[in-house]
Amino acid sequence: MAAVAVQHVTDALKNTLHLSSPKVEPTLEKAKNVVVPKQPDIEYHPHEDQWKARTAKRLAEDPSLPNTPLPEGFPKSLDSPLVWQGSDWKEEKEWVYELNADQLKEIDDALKHFRGLDKPLGYISTETFPLPTVGPILADLSREIHTGRGFFVLRTIPVDSYTREENAIIYAGVSSYVGALRAVQDGKSVIAHIKDLSQTHPANIIGAPAYTTDKQVYHTDAGDIIALFALETAAEGGTSRISSSWKVYNELAETRPDLIKTLSDPWPLDGFGGDPAYTTRPLLFYHDSRIIIQYARRLFTGFLGLPRSANIPPITEAQAEALDALHFLGEKYALGLNFQKGDIQYINNLSVFHARDAFTDTPDKTRHLLRLWLRNEELAWKTPKELEANWKRLYYSITADEQRFPLEVEIRQASRGGGAKYS
């Protein structure tokens, strides 16, 4: 990559200067000596030994890094229910709300009520999907997402009793009490499918681990709240894991404030051949007295059919170390959720990382999740200005009539590899 970049400099100089000029050769010689930044040795799947070696090397080169001041205004420590580690939770009932028979009947009645309205699915709301006793409970649980621990699991919808479309209606109807606004995830689709496609699609089509059986590293999605509905779980593996980014922040602020600064500076986010080729923004914000993190590792490393673009600025060694630190500290403090068929998992996407273990499917037990990105305007955190344009597109760009609810798996445009035209 460095040789290619130097050749580009040389070619540009040749085009700018006449070859007959006596000044050309010394100028070209200087161009050959230019040190061109290159992408660090880092992949989507993190390697702990590599992370530790990079950390040791950077600290040996600059022992003052741990004495770096935090960015202006950033807190030395966060004190909140959102600061937790997996070992703080002793039993599932602390975060699982189990629906009883009467509540499941109320949900079934709401499904029938909505069906009787004969409206497009985009009109699913608290008004059209009435839950007189379950609704207030879900509203309280939404407060838990925004001001409490940041997550809960609703157990369990009897998915086998319903068609795919009925399950989608129930999912959207119940979720409207947690966050009434549904984000577009691809085109005009507000619901997405998370399922392994590696057995049916070429590898160069798949650009995100959501469509493989691979382990997913700690990351965030887009939007305020992530909801995941398990239509089926894997035959083996696939444990859903979450971790408090506020806990991770506290450790980094105490031990490596230089990495907090790195995360709060602009990063080059790969557009994977889009226009523009890349965008820049921080991954970490301190906004309205809250830490907010928004990042996905594959935007800096690539994945399968979407390798890192060659002609965009590389990340730095500091950024590579920060990416690994987020993952391995997330792993250190993680909580594994016993995600069962029919469960809906809700997490605060602004303060909680999520990941999953690798898994194995069988013909009669194939992991399949539905995903919504939600927003509760009453409880929503204020959006940093660098994210405002994307949030506006996510939540306010289409009408109820335009919302799509695909019932089969579609690879999101942003996650399609080199064969994006494949259907």
Automatic annotation (TrEMBL):
Origin superkingdom: Eukaryota
Domain TauD/TfdA-like intervals: 119-373
InterPro entries from the UniProt entry: AlphaKG_dependent_hydroxylases, TauD-like_sf, TauD/TfdA-like
Keyword Kinase carried by entry: no
Gene3D superfamilies noted in UniProt: Clavaminate synthase-like (3.60.130.10)
Pfam families: TauD
An example Gene Ontology molecular-function term: oxidoreductase activity
Signal peptide range: none
UniProtKB keywords: Oxidoreductase
PANTHER family: FAMILY OXIDOREDUCTASE, PUTATIVE (AFU_ORTHOLOGUE AFUA_4G13850)-RELATED, GAMMA-BUTYROBETAINE HYDROXYLASE-RELATED
Name the UniProt record assigns to this protein: TauD/TfdA-like domain-containing protein
